[in-house]
Write a structure and sequence with these properties.
alpha+beta; Multidrug efflux transporter AcrB transmembrane fold; 2 domains; 4-stranded antiparallel sheet; 6 strands; about 10% strand
């Protein structure tokens, strides 16, 4: 039985032909992402912004505008109301009430009473409250986790290969994370702990893809000593193309299924991971690999230098008659 081949054996795509255009596009997207984060900011969920989240299931679909007006009239602040899985399931996000735990319980009871009076058969599924102090700690810890993960991976690549590879890998990760944050600033999708988990997953996934290509580059640097570095990088990426396509296709199928059929509670995680898989594959080819060219890597970069005259190994001779 003939095996299915996603990529022919003699593939010879000149990926780096467009590296100048790609790096220009990346710089433009990075600048736009940073500007969006600074101007629009991220739509922090209760995890990071603090507040109260009430998940409600109605007996029949309700008008979100009417529900928003009803909750606003309770004097608990400006609510954010969204569908949560189906037209009958709704999440109500409120500012953090005063009075600590007692205030939070009183606010939840007030919302429950108002909804039960207007919508018979309504069910309160969950009430989540996060204080401002806890949300601040989560923001700090989440940012620190991302930073340490990126630095740790750069050090790992540096030790396993050389410093040029570590710099390329670190900038590639910075590129992927920044564009993903810019995407969330643009769409104003809720940014919560699920997205942090997706970003940490992205860092690991992008590392895996980059390491595979870097490993093949290192092998080919030893094998083809006279080959131009640009041609060698293209060769390495073509040799690993089948593996890259197979891995990414499997990821996209799984994440696409989660987007269409999965629960809304992991929607932000799925979208972040789907977007970052695409961006991570692009950055491996057009950020991590071209960095080796810009940092002057060639076939002689990692060959041990011959000792200078007079600095060779000392040879001890033994007098046979001793």
């Amino acid at each position: 039985m003939k095996l299915l081949k996603l990529v022919p054996d003699d593939t010879n795509i000149d990926f780096l032909r467009w590296r100048g255009v790609a790096i220009g596009l990346s710089i433009l997207l990075l600048a736009a992402s940073i500007a969006l984060i600074a101007v629009k900011g991220l739509n922090f969920g209760v995890d990071f912004a603090g507040g109260q989240m009430i998940r409600v299931t109605f007996s029949q679909p309700v008008s979100l505008d009417e529900l928003r007006d009803q909750v606003s009239g309770l004097g608990l602040g400006d609510p954010s109301i969204q569908e949560f899985g189906s037209p009958r399931e709704v999440s109500i996000r409120l500012p953090l009430p005063e009075g600590g735990e007692e205030g939070a319980n009183a606010a939840a009871s007030k919302v429950r009473a108002a909804l039960e009076a207007e919508h018979p058969g309504v069910r309160i599924d969950a009430v989540e409250t996060v204080s401002g102090k806890v949300s601040g700690e989560l923001v700090r810890d989440g940012a620190l986790a991302l930073l340490l993960a990126m630095i740790g991976i750069a050090i790992y690549i540096w030790i396993r290969f050389e410093w040029q590879f570590g710099v390329g890998g670190l900038f590639s990760l910075f590129h992927d994370v920044t564009l993903t944050l810019g995407f969330f600033a643009l769409t104003q999708m809720e940014f919560d702990l699920n997205v942090i988990a997706a970003l940490l997953t992205l860092i690991g996934y992008s590392l895996n893809d980059t390491i595979v290509i870097y490993d093949r580059v290192r092998e080919n640097l030893r094998k083809y000593r006279k080959m131009d570095i640009t041609s060698l990088l293209n060769l390495s990426m073509n040799e690993t193309l089948a593996r890259t396509i197979a891995t990414n296709l499997a990821m996209l199928l799984a994440l696409g299924s989660l987007m269409l059929l999965g629960p809304d509670v992991i929607q932000s995680f799925t979208v972040a991971l789907l977007f970052s898989v695409i961006v991570g594959t692009y950055s491996t080819v057009y950020i991590a690999s071209p960095f080796l060219i810009w940092l002057k890597v060639d076939s002689d970069s990692f060959v041990p230098k011959a000792p200078a005259p007079g600095q060779g190994e000392r040879v001890t001779t033994h007098n046979e008659g001793y």
